């Protein structure tokens, strides 16, 4: 039996807490720690009420390596599940190395003062994790996460070479608010307002933010306009898929959402640099975050479904083929089970499955790993049973 330490008590942290508590065949102890302990206590009370299991809570500032090492040494968990913010990835990896604990996260490192995310900072830990005999699993959410594993599955079972990949992500749900983001508003807005980027024939190609769109027919939702975005799994998949010629990422946004975003950008509310206000320095996007709904609070009354998958085209036994591998998740169902909306759920469940792969030794190794570098089969079997069933369909060639 294993012990998990979860860091971060937001929308995703709540799901991870519920799902690790429910996985009593694997975890006999769960500790939920975050910057604001009262949020951990509220989640622990909900876990007790819904599932009758007790999880412990703690306070920690994950930006502070010494404080985190102290918590790790006191708790001695088998794994640290980082579902705080991307800003904490490096300090938490440092703390894991110092305390000798395995590490998992769902989003790659982002420096707070530059709206840029890439794996270089975390890949630079490769040698240190290898030497320490520890494992770090990067990006074990849905996208990145399950999408990487879908690509690994296509490479292992469906195609000899995976040449073209389009990752398509649709939230066909409705939370009834005029404007809200489904995960941390600051991280979400930084991602969406960045320049688009995709990989083709060995080169990165850039596009203006949200300037390229296409229609996709999402199972369970229907046709939706989808916009080309840069997303972090493109970086590792471009490196790790054999024979790849092009990989792109698409996400749906409604017109009202885009209109709000345009206005917020035009008036400077999405800026990430400091501005002077009333004799104080403030960062507009952080102020905006304080005004927007907490992603976890959207869960009650959220209706509709998410539909996310990978369209993979390539060659099998000399013939061109195209497959779509996807999951559909219902906001109201996830609320019933763990009081969360489907975006938090589709991120939190794969984090728990990734952690289970590591603590049970189904996935093992020393160093820093992206999801597609490990065997997709045990992961997909577990994630399907744990709440995210997935499907494979052969699709006509374009
Ligand atoms: P939230 O903003 O709801 O929660 C973040 C939590 O982290 C809060 O509890 C916050 O504490 C805590 N936190 C922030 N800074 C610190 C710190 N210095 N020390 C300790 N705790 C801290 O975010 P979400 O739950 O929506 O998202 C969590 C993560 O999941 C993000 O990294 C996000 O990018 C990632 N994600 C990944 C997806 C995927 O598919 N791979 C999809 C969606 C999200 P406090 O309560 O005090 O603010």
Textual characterization of the structure:
There is one protein chain. This protein has 398 residues and is of the alpha/beta class. It has a domain at 146-338: Dihydrodipicolinate Reductase, domain 2. It is built from 14 helices and 18 strands. The strands form three sheets. Strands 7, 8, 9, 10, 11, 12, 15, 16 and 18 form a nine-stranded mixed beta sheet that branches. The chain has a seven-stranded parallel beta sheet with strand order 3-2-1-4-5-6-17, sandwiched between helices. It has a two-stranded antiparallel ribbon with strand order 13-14. β2, α2 (37-51) and β3 (56-59) form a beta-alpha-beta unit. α1 (11-22) packs across α13, α7 (146-158) packs across α14 and α13 packs across α14 (376-385). The site of NADPH dihydro-nicotinamide-adenine-dinucleotide phosphate has 35 residues, from α1 and α13.
Number of helices: 14
Helix/strand/pairing category: alpha/beta
Q: Which fold name is given in CATH as the topology of the domain at 146-338?
A: Dihydrodipicolinate Reductase, domain 2
Q: Specify the CATH class of the domain at 146-338.
A: Alpha Beta
Percent in strands: 25-35%
Heteromolecules bound: NADPH dihydro-nicotinamide-adenine-dinucleotide phosphate
Number of E strands: 18
Which CATH architecture of the domain at 146-338? 2-Layer Sandwich
The main sheet comes to: 9 strands, mixed
Mean pLDDT, nearest integer? 96
The span between the termini is 48 Å
Radius of gyration: 20 Å
Query: Which blocks of ≥5 consecutive residues have pLDDT under 50?
Result: none
Helix residue percentage: 25-40%
